Amino acid sequence: MGPAGSGKSTYCATVMTHCQSVGRSVHLMNLDPAAEKFEYEPTIDIRDLITLEDVMEELQYGPNGGLIYCLEFLLNDMDWLEEELGEYEDDYLIIDCPGQIELYTHFPIMRRICDCLQRLNFRICGVYLLESQFIQDKSKFFAGVLSATSAMISLEIPHINLLSKMDLLGKVKKKELERYFDPDPLLLEEEANTSTNPKFHDLNRAIVQLIDDYNMVSFLPLNITDEDSVAAVMSHIDNALQFGEDQEPKEPLDEFDE
């Protein structure tokens, strides 16, 4: 399963390029009915079934309500998706998902889509993107940690969290970055104690305790301009998917074969 979060389309294009460069059969599947442009044309596209623009125009829904309607429409017509997926059951699919976090934390829609895909024997890995610039505002960063935690609990699938846009991050000491890759709740407590109203300190301590108790979220750095960074992320995703374990080993080419 592909990413939710900021920069998801850029991430999808980067992964598509990487997979093609290493000779992997890969297809883009778009589940965002509001998407407009793609660097790679989707092989499977929810917009062939329904688009947010049409729903907003015909039903007079707003963007958020229209998006939920589109995905519920898909859930009620999973035969369409199953037919679309039929030719690609042995291939690697990059699924571009809507970016609205509510779909992963407040509503069971994406969970039901995941359940349907698993019933079709697809192995799924969720990828959550959080911009690395959030570490410059500890409150925003830990809001992202909580959202990632909520999504992981809601979806109950193998899950990878990424700090994206590392190439745009200013200079930060490696030792300091490690406190964000494996979120150190004390970072939030230190910030809360110095910059928030004392009446919120108990709440902040409760949030710190929640993050510490669950201890579910860790981040991998992603720099899309660094091939080694992309390859490392893909390796973790492959491991989560157990990708390739069922494939037959290829016969080595004879040195005289062309």
TrEMBL record:
Keywords: GTP-binding, Hydrolase, Nucleotide-binding. InterPro entries: Gpn, Gpn3, P-loop_NTPase. GO terms for molecular function: GTP binding; GTPase activity. Pfam families: ATP_bind_1. The keyword Nucleotide-binding applies. The keyword Hydrolase applies. Belongs to the GPN-loop GTPase family. Small GTPase required for proper nuclear import of RNA polymerase II and III (RNAPII and RNAPIII). May act at an RNAP assembly step prior to nuclear import. Binds to RNA polymerase II (RNAPII). This is GPN-loop GTPase 3. The lineage of its organism: Eukaryota, Fungi, Fungi incertae sedis, Mucoromycota, Glomeromycotina.
